[in-house]
TrEMBL record:
Native organism: Neotoma lepida
PANTHER family, A to Z: EF-HAND AND COILED-COIL DOMAIN-CONTAINING FAMILY MEMBER, ELONGATION FACTOR 1-BETA
Descriptive protein name: Elongation factor 1-beta
Keyword list, A-Z: Elongation factor, Protein biosynthesis
InterPro entries in UniProt: eEF-1beta-like_sf, EF1B_bsu/dsu, EF1B_bsu/dsu_GNE, Glutathione-S-Trfase_C_sf, Transl_elong_EF1B/ribsomal_bS6, Transl_elong_EF1B_B/D_CS
Job of this protein: Catalytic subunit of the guanine nucleotide exchange factor (GEF) (eEF1B subcomplex) of the eukaryotic elongation factor 1 complex (eEF1). Stimulates the exchange of GDP for GTP on elongation factor 1A (eEF1A), probably by displacing GDP from the nucleotide binding pocket in eEF1A.
Quaternary structure note: EF-1 is composed of 4 subunits: alpha, beta (alpha subunit of the eEF1B subcomplex), delta (beta subunit of the eEF1B subcomplex), and gamma (gamma subunit of the eEF1B subcomplex). Interacts with elongation factor EEF1A1.
Length: 229
């Protein structure tokens, strides 16, 4: 498990592929997992690795708060796709320690499996009981439909790549919709793209910060329309 050497193009490519459908290294909020991986990257990924660059710029904005982010920082080899071998050696010691742990002071695998199964049954029964007690009405989720205007630097900007970068931004409560290119003059076209957001999770400030972070392609972002759903 791991990304490999994140100071090499190969390691950054693995990170970019891993983040293609994820906003963070683990879970749905910034955590110490993101800090550990961020600190292993030597600098901003190149613009063509748009998923990795989007994540890097976002985590960089937490520079002053990184110590207070949730979670416990683990070795770098503990993060990343399971199909990639950890060549840094950072996860080897942890894996060996895990292998050496004898939870019951015995090699009796049958006893271990029996106890584990019993504990699993107890947890399942407790969960079901709590679910029956908590008869809470589902909360109404407030959503908005937003139309964004994303302007490139000039008529030579690759608009296909610009849109790919914008759509690479993933977050809980954000869904991208249809898009089109709209002429603005002098051969320049802007990207007009629709998205639906959950108001409590995603705001226009966050969208602007992450979209304009692709500074090789994006000059500015404006909200063309905003409607509550």
């Amino acid at each position: 498990m791991g990304f490999g050497d994140l100071k090499t193009p190969a390691g950054l490519q693995v990170l970019n592929d891993y983040l293609a459908d994820k906003s963070y290294i683990e879970g749905y909020v910034p955590s110490q997992a993101d800090v550990a991986v961020f600190e292993a990257v030597s600098g901003p990924p190149p613009a063509d690795l748009c998923h990795a660059l989007r994540w890097y710029n976002h985590i960089k904005s937490y520079e002053k708060e990184k110590a207070s982010l949730p979670g416990v920082k683990k070795s770098l080899g503990k993060y990343g796709p399971a199909s990639v071998e950890d060549t840094t050696g950072s996860g080897a010691a942890d894996a060996k320690d895990d292998d050496d742990i004898d939870l019951f002071g015995s090699d009796d695998e049958e006893v271990y499996e029996k106890v584990k199964k019993q504990r699993g049954s107890e947890k399942s029964a407790l969960h079901n009981m709590n679910q029956r007690k908590l008869k809470v009405e589902p909360a109404v989720v407030a959503k908005s439909s937003i139309l964004l205007d994303v302007k490139p630097w000039d008529d030579e900007t690759d608009m296909t790549k610009l849109e790919e970068c914008v759509r690479s931004i993933q977050a809980d409560g954000l869904v991208w919709g249809s898009s089109k290119l709209v002429p603005v003059g002098y051969g320049i076209k802007k990207l007009q793209i629709q998205c639906v957001v959950e108001d409590d999770k995603v705001g226009t400030d966050m969208l602007e910060e992450q979209i304009t972070a692709f500074e090789d392609y994006v000059q500015s972002m404006d909200v063309a329309a905003f409607n509550k759903i």
